[in-house]
Each structure stands twice: as C-alpha cells, then as structure tokens.
Amino acid sequence: MSDQKPVRLPDPASVETVLASLQARSADAGLAPALNKAFPGFAFTVVTIDDFYWRSPHAVVAADGTRRGDHRAWVEKELAELNGDLTAFWNRHREGDQKFAEWRGTSAFAFAPTGPGVADFIQLSLGREVEVLAGLVVDPDYRPDSVDHLFEPTWVSRDSAAEAQPLAGPVYRLRGRAGGGIVHMRSFLARRARIDKEQREAGRPELENRIIREVGPDGTRDTAFLDANPDWFDFVPRENRFFADWERSSACGHRIFDHWAFDIHDLEDRGQKREIGFIPRPLKMPAGKLALGVNISVHRLMERTEAIDAEIGLPFAWFFLMTHGDWVDPNVGDAIAEGLRQGRVRLPDRDAAVLLAWADKNYLF
C-alpha cells in the first residue's frame, strides 16, 4: 500500500468501469496505472497465467467483415427460413463465407498490498481476452445432428497456439463472480475458518451420538466418533494452513502474491452446503515434476528441492508446490520428513517445523 491512505475500496462496478476505459492498444501496460488512479492509496501489480479458455460464440461475421449479428439469433433466424431443416442449413453454409467470432483468453490477476501481513492484500480475478474469427458456422465435413451442435461448435481448433484472425482486444474482464472476483485475503481467510467451524458445530449433536463399529476376528468394537477424532472441532482449513505455513517458513520474507495467485470460490445454493475455498496457482513453475523415484536417497531429494528453490527464486518453494501436488510428489515431503526425524538431513528450524507438522497431518489442493 502506498503512503497515501486509501479512500475507496475496489468494488465490482468501479473495477468494471476501469476495465471498460482501457484502450486495446495500451490495455496491458495501462491496467495497473488505471487501477491505481481509480483507487488512490493502492499500488496494484498485474500478472497473467497461461491457462487458455474461450467463451461461447457471440457473433457472425461475413467475408467482408460485416457483422451479421448475434450468433444464436442468426442461427435461429436462418433455420426458421429453412423450416428447421438442419441438412439444408448445413448445405447452405458448409462452403460459405459466414464465420463465427468468439472471445479467447487467459487468466490475469491484480494484487495490491493492504498491510505488512502475509494475507494483507487485495486480489482481483480477471480475464485477458481477444476476439477472434474462429471458423465456419458449420462443420464442413459433418452434418449437425442437433441445433445444439451449432450453438457449441467443436469443429474448430482451440489450441492456445492455434492461429486465428484477431478482431478486437485485448480487453480485461472481471471474473470469479462466485465470491472470488474481488477478495481481501485476510477477510476471506477469516470467513473460511468461520464457516468451517459453524458447519462442524451444526453437526455436533449428530456426531456426539455417532458410533464407529469395527468387526474383527476378536469380535465387535464400538468407538464414539469424537473419541476417534478428538480434534474434529479444532480443524484448520487447508487454505488457512497454507498462509500460516508461509508466515512460519523461510518464504515469509517474500510477498506471497509475488509467487502465487488464488482461484477463489464461495458458493451457496439453496438447500446446499456452502462451498468456500481456493486453489493456489503458482506464477512460476519448475521445469519438471519431482517424484519419489525408486531407491532415490533422501540426500538426493534434498538436492532436487534446493534446485527447485533456486529455479523459482524462493526459499522453501518446493514445499508449497508440493501442497498443490502437480510439481512435487507429496511422497517427497514424507521422505524428507522421515529423514529429518532420523537426523539424516537438515532444514532451517522454521522450515523443519512446518514440514513435520504437515507430515503429521497433511493437506493438499
């Protein structure tokens, strides 16, 4: 946060106004300054993540660039003229010049610190999108078997590297409307812990009467559920542990949002259990996955984890990548924890404490 005291917190309408004001040619460079201007006292940084996505077709474009209108409305109108005959529609357009346009993008995140704590920051979940001319309005090789096939084209290549003629953009859009578009992380973590505690307390009467029955060669043994799970009501959600572990580890000298973004959700459907949480997403990934190979020594594992830390530019980076599971096998953490217990390897005391606590009761995303 800058020295100037914030006078206005970001809200969806205000953020969308900022995004709409950006010009395509300068949107990438202009986003952070525009946010800083709109919300005095905040110092935003912006990152993008290469996770290609696309939106449903939204327009039909003729060969000369003329826009024929909304994609769905155009398809319905053309079909109505042909009395709903899909074969006639296909024959009319399979070699025609009518194409559909769609928006394709990648995730982007804007961060602004609000204090010195690890969770003292705001995150905006955005999408960076470009409008492209995707392809013909029908599959030229196969007749559609339903009108839904026309509304959801599967015959065009949507590989992130696929070449497609750009029509407009880039533009930035606010995403994550399921409670995750604009989040103050410290407040989110408090809400996450509170909701989990409330949900567990709501189940207390039933759990106090629940019995676990085990049948074995020596007969039947009944155990009260809460006797078997004495820390049930002291549970700490994985999201809160991730941040607490960062704060307790050697990584604490680095701002967490310089290395991670968070896909956040907070969903509550009528009659359904509220679902709240996040998936952490690394802003930099190691070149390869570290797995627990056959006969690999714990000393060799330590060398590999140190190489990952150096590659990422963050002490103890391998541990947080391990909680995600895609880049460091959790078995690696268990093996190093056992090496610590046996005195065969060493870690800084703070990192050893975090790893041993994780090995005792792990969490993964």
Explain briefly what this protein structure is.
The protein has 365 residues and is an alpha+beta fold.
Characterize the structure shown.
Strands 1, 2, 3, 4, 5, 6 and 7 form a seven-stranded antiparallel sheet that branches. A two-stranded antiparallel sheet has the order 8-9. The protein is globular. It has helices spanning 12-21, 27-38, 71-81, 86-93, 147-151, 185-202, 204-208, 225-228, 238-248, 298-312, 317-324, 330-341, 349-360; strands spanning 45-54, 59-61, 67-70, 99-113, 121-136, 165-174, 182-184, 211-216, 219-224, 260-267, 275-282. The protein is of the alpha+beta class and 365 residues long. It is 36% helix and 24% strand. The chain is built from 13 helices and eleven strands.
What is the count of β-strands? Answer: 11
What's the oligomerization state?
single chain
| Structural class determined from secondary elements | alpha+beta
**Count of discrete alpha- or pi-helical segments spanning 4 or more residues:** 13
Largest sheet: 7 strands, antiparallel
Overall pLDDT: 92
Strand content: 15-25%
Q: Please write the string of helix (H) and strand (E) elements.
A: HHEEEHHEEHEEHHEEHHEEHHHH
What are the segments in which pLDDT stays under 50 over at least 5 consecutive residues? none
Helix content: 25-40%
Topology:
Elements lengths: L11 H10 L5 H12 L6 E10 L4 E3 L5 E4 H11 L4 H8 L5 E15 L7 E16 L10 H5 L13 E10 L7 E3 H18 L1 H5 L2 E6 L2 E6 H4 L9 H11 L11 E8 L7 E8 L15 H15 L4 H8 L5 H12 L7 H12 L5
Antiparallel strand pairs: 1-4, 2-3, 2-4, 4-5, 5-6, 5-7, 8-9, 10-11
Helix pairs in contact: 1-2, 12-13
